[in-house]
Design a protein that fits this description.
Elements (H helix, E strand, L loop, with lengths): L1 E5 L12 H9 L2 E4 L6 H10 L2 E3 L15 E6 L2 E8 L6 H8 L5 E5 L5 E4 L5 E4 L13 E8 L2 E9 L3
Parallel strand pairs: 1-2, 2-3, 5-6, 6-8
Antiparallel strand pairs: 1-9, 4-5, 7-8, 9-10
């Protein structure tokens, strides 16, 4: 199973994602979006092309009531917790383990900083960064997970240039 992981797309009024990301979405089996879509239209367009799980971000004012603040989804036997803001870097692993004790992977966003770490008990902590607003990062980014045999076999942060 090919999973595209997004956060902090900050799309207003429509889906205007980089071409390389659109190509990745065309090949994806599922999309996980860790908040700050910012547009109901963009979320609808994303969901129309591939099954999508999303959580509410702090800039998703138009999506309040439409998206949960957090959720746990299962993808081919892998439990994935999703939340927009994981809080400060200090104590993050323990905080996410408390929030999602049964999750194998926790996907989050908010900081626009890509993170691929192993937390407490082998829990994967994964922030894909942002494909549209790199802020202080050198590149715009998104994430990919490959799931097979009920485990995450590969994970990567993909760069989109500046």
């Amino acid at each position: 199973m090919d999973v595209v992981v997004l956060a902090d797309t900050h799309l207003k009024g429509g889906l205007e994602l980089p071409g390389a990301l659109r190509a990745a979405l065309a090949d994806a089996d599922v999309v996980l979006h860790a908040g700050d879509v910012t547009s109901a239209l963009a979320l609808e367009q994303l969901c129309s092309s591939v099954p999508t799980h999303a959580v509410l971000g702090n800039n998703d004012h138009a999506l309040v009531g439409a998206l949960p603040g957090s959720q746990l989804v299962e993808l081919d036997g892998v439990r994935v917790g999703m939340v927009h803001d994981s809080g400060a870097a200090r104590g993050r692993a323990a905080r996410l383990k408390r929030m999602f004790p049964q999750a194998d992977v926790v996907v989050f966003g908010h900081s626009h900083v890509p993170i691929d770490e192993v937390g407490i008990g082998g829990q994967i902590l994964f922030n894909p960064g942002s494909p549209t607003q790199r802020r202080a990062q050198p590149w715009r980014t998104f994430g990919r997970l490959r799931i097979a045999g009920h485990v995450v076999t590969t994970r990567s942060i993909e760069t989109l240039g500046d």
